[in-house]
Write a structure and sequence with these properties.
Blueprint (H helix, E strand, L loop, with lengths): L1 H16 L6 H4 L1 E2 L4 E2 L4 H14 L4 E8 L5 E7 L12 E5 L8 H16 L4 H9 L1 E5 L4 H6 L25 H4 L6 H4 L16 H12 L4 E6 L2 E5 L12 H15 L2 E2 L6 H4 L7 H9 L2 E8 L7 H22 L2 H5 L12 H13 L1
Parallel strand pairs: 5-6, 5-7, 7-10, 8-9
Antiparallel strand pairs: 1-2, 3-4, 4-6, 8-10
Length: about 350
């Protein structure tokens, strides 16, 4: 008992006083019970605006659209020449809160922005990342969902909103090609948690990501979620491998070494095993723009409240982001080895037929 009390006191002292750790962590702890309190949309907005005013040479904040309830979808650019689109510099895209009830997914990105701003002049690795890459962040893709504490957005045309990570149009037609495989009934039911929306790319949250992808040179992206501790990558609707399979695995395994999140590859694709998933940002970003796009499930709990847990998740993903900035500086040489004109992959139904034929014969 005494050791637990001592441990709690030590943790709180470190979180409250260590200058290396961004103060965002200490500010969000209820000192009466040490429960972590996540940023609200307005608190995040105030913080990002304050950080931009303090560091305008390396951080730019813009609204990339409005939600159904009128909230700005904030887009952060971090670079040493933040007003210039440096096409020769590689880009890293970080996305959080596709699903509003997965709060750690945006908190770790707020943490990262603040960490970079506070340590640019102190840490050579941070300075290298800012000076030699362009870092693009939408920390809270779905702020309406965050404020409502719900998975989907708050589209008034649907009683329960739209799943913004099922709304991308890259592989939309496969619902009609193989409705049973891709759960067409779920995807088109407004009450379902995976409701895709009325039409491809219909949601402002989806359009914000498309705008970023079409506007900048991006090499790698991470989309953060929570509910597990794994990372995976396209394709999300077929077991067919991408032309960049080896590169996906190489980078993914390095991230696994840093974060501890298992990389699911080859025979272990989570989403295709569940029947295939369409309309994701990862399939769009890779399929349309050849961005090496990963999903990272960052916590078994959707919104952990233990401060130690939150800090551990935030801090280890800082290391992941810095690694990706370093890797992105060499990745073009790898990507050009594969033609950009490869065909869109066949849906999983053909993969299933292939497996059945192998078993029969």
């Amino acid at each position: 008992m005494k050791s637990n009390i001592l441990k709690t006191c030590i943790v709180f002292f470190i979180l409250s006083t260590t200058s290396i750790m961004p103060s965002v962590i200490a500010l969000n702890i209820d000192k009466n019970n040490l429960v972590y309190e996540y940023y609200t949309y307005q608190q995040m907005t105030d913080l990002l605006q304050d950080l931009q005013s303090q560091t305008p040479k390396i951080m730019k904040l813009e609204s990339y659209g409005k939600t159904h309830e009128g909230r700005d979808i904030w887009f952060v650019k971090i670079s040493d020449n933040v007003e210039i689109d440096e096409e020769s510099e590689p880009g890293v895209l970080l996305l959080g809160a596709h699903h509003g009830d997965e709060k750690i997914s945006f908190e770790l990105l707020i943490f990262f922005v603040k960490y970079v701003m506070e340590n640019y002049d102190k840490d050579d690795r941070v300075k290298n990342a800012v000076d030699n890459t362009q870092i693009f962040i939408i920390p809270m893709i779905n702020p309406d969902g965050v404020e409502a504490n719900q998975r989907k957005n708050c589209n008034p045309d649907s009683e329960h909103g739209v799943n913004t990570n099922r709304n991308f149009g890259y592989d939309w037609e496969y619902y009609e090609i193989a409705p049973d495989v891709f759960n067409y009934e779920w995807a088109t039911s407004p009450t379902n948690w995976n409701y895709r929306g009325s039409s491809p790319n219909s949601e402002s949250e989806t359009q914000a990501i498309i705008r970023v992808a079409e506007s900048f040179t991006i090499n790698i992206s991470l989309s953060y979620h929570s509910g597990a501790e794994v990372a995976f990558y396209p394709w999300y609707h077929t077991t067919q491998k991408t032309p960049h399979e080896a590169l996906f695995i190489e980078i993914g395994e390095e991230m696994e070494q840093i974060s501890g999140y298992s990389l699911w590859t080859g025979s272990k694709p989570i989403i295709p095993k569940l029947g295939g998933t369409l309309g994701t940002s990862e399939n769009y970003l890779y399929g349309e723009h050849k961005i090496l796009a990963y999903t990272v499930e960052s916590s078994r709990q959707k919104s952990p409240t233990n401060p130690d847990t939150v800090y551990d998740i935030c801090s280890k993903n800082v290391e992941v982001h810095l690694y990706l900035c370093e890797k992105a500086q060499t990745i073009d040489n790898n990507k050009v080895l594969v033609s950009k004109g490869f065909l869109k992959p066949f849906p999983r139904v053909l993969s299933l037929l292939h497996k059945i034929l192998l078993q029969l014969f």
